[in-house]
Design a protein that fits this description.
Elements: E1 17-20, H1 31-35, E2 43-49, H2 50-65, E3 70-76, H3 85-98, E4 106-110, H4 112-124, E5 131-135, H5 138-144, E6 149-154, E7 157-164, E8 169-172, H6 182-199, H7 201-216, H8 221-240, H9 259-265, H10 272-289, H11 295-307, H12 319-332, E9 339-342, E10 348-351, H13 356-371
Parallel strand pairs: 1-8, 2-3, 2-4, 4-5, 5-8
Antiparallel strand pairs: 6-7, 9-10
Helix pairs in contact: 3-4, 4-5, 5-6, 6-7, 6-8, 6-10, 7-8, 9-10, 9-12, 10-11, 10-13
The structure holds nicotinamide-adenine-dinucleotide (NAD).
Length: 378
């Protein structure tokens, strides 16, 4: 017998902005100062990726001091090794030492690692502090820093601890990409190829026409902007209708079924987008095996990935490992496989019935294709 029974309902409305700008750190550009709500005499905790700090540190400091704002700059190393609770704690301690008010935004300038860790720290600090993201890698600009998810790794699991805490404002400046190593450009291109394959045939065509040039010039120029614009528009449209992931069938999970396990296990280390690329290649072979994606289109995707400088295979990909990765993904997706597979370029379906035998056939087919010069099915 119940003596009391209460239900509390509240709706948390969220809105956040993503803005593309040029010359973000130019003295006359107010975009960052406005986003970070800088007023003369205030202090701001500014977390900066260590590589970006050595390249742009002086400009970053000057940007704030010119506005009579004290930047408390903390360098944070890039790379997965930083996605730890230790770094979340360090950021919390830095926020305390900086003497931040509860509503003072933290500024996070760096790649997906920094924005993921900073976002989690911001979501925990005083149970939720605003922050501003300035992504400086391609994967950050098209993916990691435009959504709501934050995270760190735990016990060998990707993003095992995390939260949904979008930045109030994300400012994208492609100028940061000028210093990005080529491998990290390819890493970001993987997430753009993902959007193209599952929902945007026009984007696929743009990539297919000149992916090598786009990579070489780091998406500067007009086509680069079109590509970024389409990729981000598509991503935000997918996220907006399902920001809290109540629906676990997400087309943006294309390439993210076995990739978390591959990313954590590969030796030498694979980048996030590289693991996603291998997953996309395998998904395309699965789709081809089911007659969802034609062999010519499968070849186009695999070839595009390679042209972008991405791998389609890794020695870690043995059947036992990949099947346990699928099982882990099922746990992550609430008990169903919900694997997005392309059903043509620009569209996608979900499947729940991939068997270990089917995976065996596809893994060996992908291995065969990966060994051929262009990865093109016969
Ligand atoms: N939250 C999400 O929705 C989401 C989505 C996709 C990826 N991610 C996460 O993003 C992470 C990968 O992000 P990443 O590839 O940006 O990694 P990263 O932050 O480690 O950056 C990659 C490297 O580039 C360097 N760097 C950053 N900006 C630079 C610049 N402008 N010039 C020169 N060097 C620069 C960094 O120091 C680092 O060495 C993964 O942990 C992944 O899980 C998150």
């Amino acid at each position: 017998m119940k003596l009391g029974d209460w239900t509390v309902r509240a709706v948390r409305e969220v809105s956040y902005r993503v803005t593309e700008v040029v010359d973000l750190l130019a003295p006359g550009n107010d975009a960052l100062a406005e986003a970070a709500r800088c007023s003369p005499g205030s202090r701001r905790l500014v977390l900066v990726d260590e590589n970006v700090l050595s390249l742009r540190g002086e400009e970053i400091r000057a940007y704030f001091t010119d506005r009579r704002v004290v930047p408390v700059v903390v360098g944070v190393p890039g790379g997965e090794a930083t996605k730890t609770l230790r770094w979340v704690e360090k950021i919390g301690l830095a926020a305390d030492s900086a003497g931040l008010d509860r509503r003072d935004p933290i500024v996070a300038v760096g790649g997906g690692v920094l924005t993921d860790v900073a976002g989690l720290a911001a979501s925990l600090y005083r149970r939720g502090t605003p922050y501003v993201r300035v992504p400086t890698t391609l994967i950050g600009q098209v993916d990691a820093a435009v959504g709501a998810k934050t995270g760190i790794n735990l016990h060998g699991g990707k993003n095992r601890l995390g939260s949904y805490h979008p930045a109030d404002h994300t400012l994208l400046d492609r100028g940061f990409l000028a210093t990005l190593p080529q491998r990290h450009v390819a890493n970001g291109l993987a997430e753009i190829v993902k959007m193209a394959v599952i929902r945007d045939a026009v984007l696929f065509g743009l990539l297919d026409a000149e992916v090598e040039d786009l990579a070489r010039i780091r998406l500067s120029g007009e086509t680069g902007q079109r590509v970024m614009h389409r990729a981000i528009t598509g991503m935000l449209a997918e996220l907006e209708v399902n920001l809290w992931e109540h629906d676990l069938r997400r087309v943006v999970d294309f390439g993210h079924t076995i990739s978390p396990a591959v990313e954590m296990a590969a030796d030498p280390v694979l980048l996030h987008g590289e693991a996603v690329s291998i997953d996309m290649a395998l998904s395309c072979v699965l789709a081809a095996g089911r007659g969802l994606l034609g062999h010519a289109d499968t070849a186009r995707v695999l070839t595009l990935l390679r042209r972008a400088g991405l791998p389609v295979w890794n020695p870690v990909c043995d059947l036992g490992f990949l099947w346990s990765a699928v099982e882990d993904s099922v746990r992550h997706r609430g008990g169903r496989q919900s694997i997005p597979l392309p059903s043509g370029i620009g569209t996608c379906v979900f499947v729940d019935d991939v068997t270990e035998d089917e995976l065996r056939v596809c893994v060996s087919e992908l291995h065969r294709l990966a060994g051929t010069e262009a990865g093109i099915p016969a």
